[in-house]
Design goal:
alpha/beta, TIM Barrel, 8-stranded parallel beta sheet, 11 strands, about 10% strand, globular
């Protein structure tokens, strides 16, 4: 089958070098850099502003590992962060070779350590500096082949005016979009429609710079508070998804996307897209087949109960159709029916490479799940919708 548009991976990842922040931060922040340290037994610790985050680094990569190696990567103390580095994790030329093998023309790249640190940082200036350091690095990474490698800038909203400046700087540096944490702590507890954030949304709209909500790792105490006391089992603090060795690991990993779904629903219901009609929003790493049910439910509640109260003038689904896309996972077997129901213009897809819960060869799996759709609709999901969304 010949497709009329490029194949675009809308949510690939890099595994940042452990010394990235020590090398790219301004000098006054270097002593507070994110770094990897080791205890007396040689175990790795991710240090964020001098604090041990207890993020389990070895479990972040490993897409190319076999079952036994993945188990070792997920067992505390058996492997290191670098043991999980697959080809192209932080080498641009290798990444292009991986993309060639996987049949991917363009990759939109998101951070990995970057999705782990925001909940630990309360200092707005430091958060901005951490973001700026990463954004400078990813711009250099993508400069090896800017036609195929596209960076999404990581932006902290703790200082909204500094976020405006960094969005402008990173846009000029070649970044095609912005990654935002869905965690309220990452924006100082503000609602998305808080007046303090207005300059930032206006800046993104002015720049034609799409933003995307992406799954993040919260500090352990916040994760437990969010999920409830039933999640408080031994060993959770040492793993990024509540403890791969716990009985609740499967449930918790499946629920990790809830933060993104909640944040998206808040953006719609608080009128953010009403106020900024050209602001684009991507909903990433939460799957896609839930979106129809959520839009139906929000539309119904709006029409039958809340039309006089909600600060919006259209149906919630109409804002989604006007301004949003949602990212499909390759293994979603119901994706064709959802695309047919909602429209191919609103779906992109993601490899999540090189994370440990991703797989190789996912494009073929996705194509199989889309095979019942017309060729033009398949092409939109595989790349055309991303080209439009990211102004590629």
């Amino acid at each position: 089958m010949s497709l009329p548009s490029p194949v675009v991976d809308s949510d690939g990842h890099v595994l940042e070098p452990g010394d990235l922040w020590e090398n790219y931060l301004e000098k006054k922040y270097v002593d507070r850099a994110i770094r990897i340290d080791h205890d007396e037994s040689g175990q790795e610790h991710l240090i964020i502003d001098g604090q041990d985050s207890e993020v389990f680094l070895a479990g972040l990569g490993g897409v190319d590992a076999d079952a036994d190696e993945k188990k070792a990567l997920l067992t505390h103390g058996e492997r290191t962060y670098e043991d999980g580095w697959a080809p192209g994790s932080n080498n641009a030329k290798e990444r292009l070779e991986v993309m060639d093998r996987e049949g991917i023309d363009i990759s939109i790249l998101y951070p990995t350590i970057g999705i782990c640190w925001e909940g630990w940082v309360d200092d707005p200036a430091l958060a901005t500096a951490y973001s700026r350091a990463y954004n400078r690095w990813i711009a250099e990474f993508c400069s090896v082949n800017p036609e195929r490698l596209k960076g999404a800038a990581h932006i902290s909203l703790l200082d909204p005016l500094a976020a405006c400046e960094e969005a402008r700087r990173s846009r000029a540096d070649g970044c095609v979009g912005v990654m935002l944490s869905p965690d309220p702590k990452a924006r100082g507890g503000l609602m998305f429609n808080d007046p303090a954030l207005a300059p930032f949304w206006g800046t993104l709209q002015e720049l034609d710079m799409p933003m995307s909500l992406h799954v993040v790792v919260r500090p352990n105490s916040q994760q437990l508070a969010y999920r409830g006391d039933w999640a408080g089992v031994n060993g959770l603090a040492k793993h990024p998804i509540f403890g791969f060795e716990s009985d609740l690991a499967l449930m918790n990993s499946a629920l990790l996307s809830a933060d993104v779904e909640i944040a998206f629903s808040q953006m719609v219901s608080t009128g953010l897209f009403e106020i900024y009609p050209r602001l684009k929003c991507g909903v990433l790493e939460a799957g896609a087949t839930w979106i129809g049910a959520r839009l139906d439910r929000m539309d119904n509640k709006y029409k039958t109960l809340l039309k006089s109260y909600a600060p919006i003038s259209m149906l919630p689904s109409e804002y989604f159709y006007r301004q949003c896309v949602v990212s499909a996972d390759p293994d979603e077997t119901m994706i064709a029916a959802c695309v047919e129901h909602i429209g191919a213009d609103y779906f992109v897809w993601a490899s999540d490479y090189p994370h440990i819960d991703a797989n190789l060869g996912v494009l073929e799996e996705l194509k199989k799940n889309l095979a019942s759709l017309p060729t033009d609709d398949q092409a939109k999901v595989l790349g055309g919708s991303a080209v439009r969304f990211y102004y590629l």
